[in-house]
Design brief:
There is one protein chain. Helix content is 35%, strand content 19%. It is globular and about 70 Å long. It folds into three domains: 16-159, Creatinase/prolidase N-terminal domain (Creatine Amidinohydrolase, Chain A, domain 1); 172-310, Creatine Amidinohydrolase, Chain A, domain 1 (3-Layer(aba) Sandwich), CATH 3.40.350; 320-603, Creatinase/methionine aminopeptidase superfamily (Creatine Amidinohydrolase), CATH 3.90.230.10. Helix 16 packs antiparallel against helix 17 (461-473). It is α+β, with helices and mostly antiparallel strands. One of its GO terms (cellular component) is cytoplasm.
């Protein structure tokens, strides 16, 4: 009945079988007179989702998470992962060959400083690390008396004999009905930023920035409509887009050539070299520009100027067309979500459903809208203890049956041409325990605190983050991920620079879209997360002495009332929830069948204290 077109459930190759790859890699390092090598989970542009040809970390170690790094030395090897992936890495990696270490605290550089010896030569691929990352590696080598060596070609690619070819997804034009602003207008704004930076040119090393600037989309990586590409925007004169011509139809090429010259990717280096030889200062995005670009510019006599890509902030503030498109996308998505939640409530108590069944069903309901382009990330559907794995991805091996008494955590999203969605709901299957209700209610109160927040212009995500955690902290518990990330407009579901987290230093501006997703995870027990997307809007406060902002909730889907402990919740919090559910009912009810209407009426009925 249901099937997934955009997701697979195959188990990745597991640890022990990969040990032969590690041996072959060590032999290649010895041949190149290297005593170690650093393997990041990265492509040349630091994308979150990378093409199969760039999955070096997964190929060598078995670890398939979206953030990580490995270091191979002559006698030791370590995989570094963050808190989201500690449980996953322990299951995927052969721990007899690899140590599993934290990615952040302490950082990998501490491990390197301890394990490198004087005279060691640690290799790295400068196309896969930012300059800041390369500098941290160099400092760690210096502390140990070792040398950091930038390689011309990646030694791992020499032993990866069946490496997939690079992707050639066709480029699509993202028309004005979705983008809301012509390329020429965007380029005018970017040139003002170039003048402000006091540089001669700007390199767009982030494919998201190229896609946004030139109103194109692509299909080179999973779940994000990215055309892998670069652009060079000079202070004066035409920009150049560097993209594999095989991806361009005649119409896509014509579209690009209206505002830019179009060249092959391997023309980037000579173009930069020519600019640098004229002693140009060239701005690079410190978050996505490969260290190789800085080296190339400096070697040719230019001045690399590292900083934040000005396009990331321009892109994060959505225009009125993008905002209206996102609202439409969320209303469409709400119908699929409501049909899905009604189906879960009907079928799960029978005891036959598995996690994979839920992923396939939800994708099918979304495809039924007729507008789904892709899921915006692989659906996280974890029941029971799997729900406690923050970035769990179900495979045929881990697939659990959903049992009465479980909590089902389902985090999913969709890519529609008019907007990107991301939503998490936690569903009680049968009767929840008192502990589940307590934790769910604390998470819900934190979620409502963010949704109801009002804050002056200039407020950062870090200043709001505590609102989401306060009720969990009161019980001595917390969650190990950020409260919210930025979301693109038919682009990445995880978009910078703004976020709601302890590290969120970018002020939130009207037009930004962020997630609101506090959670709680009991290892080997259950997981809880409640996530809606929020739009930053002007708040109307009588007598306000400065501009004040608030959030407009975009996501429309019932929150499980059975998991709320009404003794813990305030009348204002309950008022927010009842108002939200009334809005869900009003927007979704006319678009669903009679059986789903009955379920929706019950699921959104007002609660009283």
């Amino acid at each position: 009945m249901f099937e997934a077109h955009f997701q697979t459930f195959e188990d990745p190759e597991a640890g022990v079988a990969l040990t032969a790859r590690l041996s072959a890699f060590r032999e290649e390092l010895a041949r190149r007179k290297l005593t170690g090598f650093v393997i990041p989970r990265a492509d040349q542009q630091q994308n979150e989702y990378v093409a199969p040809s760039e999955e070096r970390l997964a190929w060598l170690t078995g670890f398939t998470g979206s953030a990580g790094m490995a270091v191979v030395l002559t006698r030791q090897a370590a995989v570094f992962v963050d808190g989201r992936y500690t449980l996953q890495a322990a299951k995927q990696v052969d721990t007899r060959a690899w140590q599993v270490e934290p990615l952040a605290d302490p950082p990998p550089e501490s491990w390197l400083a301890q394990h490198l010896a004087a005279g060691d030569r640690l290799g790295f691929d400068p196309w896969l690390h930012t300059s800041a990352a390369a500098e941290r590696l160099a400092a760690a080598c210096a502390r140990a008396g070792a040398e950091l060596v930038a390689v011309d070609s990646n030694p791992l690619d020499s032993v990866w004999t069946e490496r997939p070819p690079p992707p050639l997804g066709p480029v699509a034009i993202h028309g004005p009905q979705f983008s809301g602003e012509a390329e020429s207008e965007k380029l005018k704004r970017i040139r003002l930023e170039i003048v402000r930076l006091g540089v001669d040119a700007l390199v767009l090393s982030d494919s998201h920035a190229v896609a946004w600037t030139f109103n194109i989309r692509g299909a080179d990586v999973s779940h994000t409509p990215l055309p892998l590409s670069y652009a060079l925007v000079p202070k004066d004169g035409r920009p150049t887009v560097f993209i594999d011509h095989r991806k361009l139809s005649n119409s896509a090429r014509d579209h690009l050539e209206q505002s830019a010259d179009v060249e092959e990717p391997d023309a980037l280096a000579p173009n930069l070299t020519a600019l640098a030889q004229a002693h140009a200062s060239i701005a690079l995005d410190s978050a996505t520009a490969a260290d190789a670009l800085s080296r190339l510019i400096a070697a040719a006599g230019g001045k690399p100027v590292r900083g934040s890509d000005p396009v990331s902030l321009l892109k994060a503030v959505k225009n009125s067309t993008e905002i209206e498109g996102t609202r439409t996308a969320h209303r469409r998505d709400a119908v699929a979500l409501t049909r899905f939640l009604a189906w879960i409530d009907r079928e799960a108590p029978k005891g036959a459903l598995t996690e994979i069944d839920t992923v396939e069903a939800l994708e099918t309901f979304r495809r039924d809208t007729g507008a789904l382009k892709d899921v915006s990330f692989p659906t996280i559907a974890g029941t029971g203890p799997n729900g406690a794995i923050v970035h769990y991805r179900v495979t045929r091996m881990t697939n659990r049956r959903i049992a009465p008494g479980d909590l089902l955590l389902i985090d999913s999203g969709a890519q529609y041409e008019d907007g990107t969605t991301d939503v998490t709901r936690t569903v009680a299957i049968g009767e929840p325990t008192d502990e589940m209700r307590d934790r769910f209610t604390r998470v819900l109160r934190g979620h409502i605190a963010i949704a109801r927040a009002v804050f002056p212009d200039g407020t950062t995500g870090a200043q709001l983050d505590t609102l989401a955690r306060q009720f969990l902290w009161q019980a001595g518990v917390d969650f190990e991920h950020g409260t919210g990330h930025g979301v693109g407009s038919y682009l990445s579901v995880h978009e910078g620079p703004a976020r709601i987290s302890k590290l969120g230093a970018t002020p939130l501006k009207r037009g930004m879209i962020l997630s609101n997703e506090p959670g709680y995870y009991k290892t080997e027990g259950f997981g809880i997360r409640i996530e809606n997307l929020e739009l930053v809007v002007a708040a109307d406060i009588a007598g306000a002495e400065k501009p004040i902002n608030a959030f407009e909730t975009l996501t429309l889907a019932p929150i499980d009332r059975r998991l709320i402990d009404l003794k813990m919740i305030s009348s204002k919090e309950l008022g927010w929830l009842n108002d939200y559910h009334a809005r869900v009912r009003r927007e979704v009810r006319p678009q669903v069948d009679e059986a789903t209407k009955v379920w929706l009426d019950a699921a959104t009925a007002p609660l009283t204290l």
